[in-house]
Structure prediction request, 319 residues.
Amino acid sequence: MSTRSSLVRMADLTAGDVGRILDTADRFASVMDRDIKKVPTLRGRTVVNLFLEPSTRTSTSFELAAKRLSADVVSIKGQGTSMDKGETLKDTILTLEAYEPDVFVIRHPQVGACAMAGRYTDAAVVNAGDGTGEHPTQALLDVFTVQQEVGSLDGMHVAIVGDVLHSRVARSGIQAFRMMGARVTVVAPPTLVPRHLAEALGVEVSADIRDIADADIVYVLRMQVERMGAGGFVPSLEEYARMYQVNHARLGPGQRVMHAGPVNRGVEISGEVVDDPGSLIEAQAANGLVVRMAVLYDVLTEAAGEPGEDEGGVLLEAA
Prediction:
């Protein structure tokens, strides 16, 4: 079982933990302005990125995050591994554990896979998305983005629009936004809202797109067609777009729009909104790097009881 601090669910964190991680991310952001964007903070540590679902933003930002911290990085994608030959995740973890990594960053199509992996390794485990379960580092970078670009979430209204049923981003994001003091409204067709969501996570639920009108932040989710099987959740993507697409006609002055990507322009969101100067989508992508640097730092140093910035003095020292 993992003997290090891990990040598998948002429930693993308190508001204080979130604040600490995002403060670290803010300090790492200053490194991005340097010619040499690298610090020796995790020199001698090994990070294994095990991505068994498609990913561009998350896999790239985690790999760059580890390299910017001077860690040794091994990145493994699903195709071409022994898992293609029928090896289980358990046996893959046990095999890689023999090489004594310090962190596993795991994306897997099954809910609970990251928690299960933690039972077979002494390394820290960071959940980079487990099926429709959770995606805690996305939630952290979303909170960081709002704080950097808009301000404190305390008292804000966040409307989350779209396929909540299949969205790990929504599950972690709702918890993070509420933890930081925001009111959250979910807007979606009833077929795309998990049963008992309102009671379980303390959100308001609406099927009326007009209820985004008083939101400070409108967070758009894509339709996860790949998880819908035979379908039947909506009549068609065209009909969904007609009823729920976030576009300029449905947005008011000052509202900021977020989307975790990948974006399906013309379906859940119009291209004009994606490209609008008020959109936070590019900022989200950029902030993923420094937030994931902070997460790796946190699970391997402060949370593990090792020297932090003040004691070790190496957090921002150039490599």
